[in-house]
């Protein structure tokens, strides 16, 4: 069984590498595989080589990192909340990040993507912290229902505040609208580099607590009976969701549905053991966002559709399917 699952991981890792290659080669400016290889081996300063090295390679790596992070954060959130539709939006992470960026643009005149990354990361962290503090209030402590309700309430509040500020400030709307739609276009390696340590910590930490998430998935009573320190594990998992989802939103803006869709697909492929679900979800999340980004380049060429719109087109039917079938979180 372990050999079969290892082969599945290797297969999808190779597929991810193929999609990274396709992302580097495909686009409005026609290039070939040979052109891409030459750009890294015998760089000649041509327009094609510059585009490949400075635009498409960073874009492909950012799409892979963001997709992997969103998918892995979705697995953790669905396990903690016992909610099969949980995603970064359910904890208010997307809304908190968006509100922070809008405030920074409207009142402090921030305008560059590098600044957006740090501001949105802090906004995501603040929103997630608020959700966990509110969800932990009361004698029962942190429960899945309270966590979900707190996340929905804060997400609605931040979204309302964001819309209110944008209505009053049209210039801010023009600056942040594309970011709020979710996109990996125009992002540089410096933006990825500034947030990458947090993403890497999130990936490693998620794999380290994967065994404990298996116990959490069995229910709090069972977990307590097995001697698991539930509170500590949930706090650690919350911190990891901030690193993963907050870092992803900081780089690419609020991209939806990957955190909802991928965990369910992964469990159908490899089972419910989080030690396998988390790494495969990362690979599938990267593949999905890479594929969506490639598709976004061709829908209305020479213009591009924000990749957040593409993931919504993919995710909405699956979201409805999950809701109708009533999948339980496992």
Automatic annotation (TrEMBL):
Q: Which SUPFAM superfamilies match?
A: ABC transporter involved in vitamin B12 uptake, BtuC
The source's domain of life comes to Bacteria
Q: Which UniProt keywords apply?
A: Cell membrane, Membrane, Transmembrane, Transmembrane helix, Transport
TM spans (from-to): 6-28, 86-108, 115-135, 147-168, 189-211, 231-264, 276-299, 305-323
The question of whether Membrane is a record keyword is answered with yes
For whether the record's keyword set contains Amino-acid biosynthesis, the answer is no
Which GO biological process entries does UniProt record here? siderophore-iron import into cell
Provide the primary localization.
membrane
A Gene Ontology cellular-component term: plasma membrane
**Which Gene Ontology molecular-function terms are recorded?**
transmembrane transporter activity
| Membrane topology according to the record | Multi-pass membrane protein
**Matching PANTHER family:** FERRIC ENTEROBACTIN TRANSPORT SYSTEM PERMEASE PROTEIN, SIDEROPHORE TRANSPORT SYSTEM PERMEASE PROTEIN YFIZ-RELATED
UniProt record similarity statement: Belongs to the binding-protein-dependent transport system permease family. FecCD subfamily.
Question: What protein does this entry describe?
Answer: Iron complex transport system permease protein
The species this protein was found in: Falsibacillus pallidus
